[in-house]
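I am hoping you can look over what I have pasted underneath with an eye to the fold:
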Amino acid sequence: CSKESAVKSEEKGEGQVSISCVAVTTVDDTRANVSCTTPAAEDFSLRIDGVGHTYTANYATIAEFNGGDNYLKSATYKATVTAGDIAVEGYDKATFVGSAEFTVEPRENQNVEITATIANALVKVEVTDAFKAYFPGGHSLKLTTKSGTEFDVTEQTEPLFIAPESFTVSGTAVKQPNQ
């Protein structure tokens, strides 16, 4: 940075911040790797909130923040990145969210790396071979999310990404074929 901007940032008690993000598809509860479309770093929106002080800023992309006036006053902040919309449910509709706290010191550059993970609930409904043998006439299963969205999960092969709230599974099964 130039001598002029360094003096200016010191007088204001500011430090420079750059944000980076990496998306991971490992699900914490199962440690399983989930197959889904992983967003690129430029697909993430950014929100910065003050911790213990009033400050909020929203950016359409991380690049918008990094390419602009990315000086913040000396304080502690929380950066949150988001890609996707948790309210949009379906197959391959993953939403990634991550956050990190960081402290800005005057005349220092702060690199903040945020790991974003899948924020949705993942549901996969399966029936056993014994269930299929007991109901040779077939079966049908429907999953309904809290928002009222319905999915046919009779022959589900991929996980379904839904809002992490409640859901119900209902269905019918036929004991005898052709009935």
In short: Confidence is low (pLDDT under 50) at residues 1-8. The two ends are 78 Å apart (CA to CA).
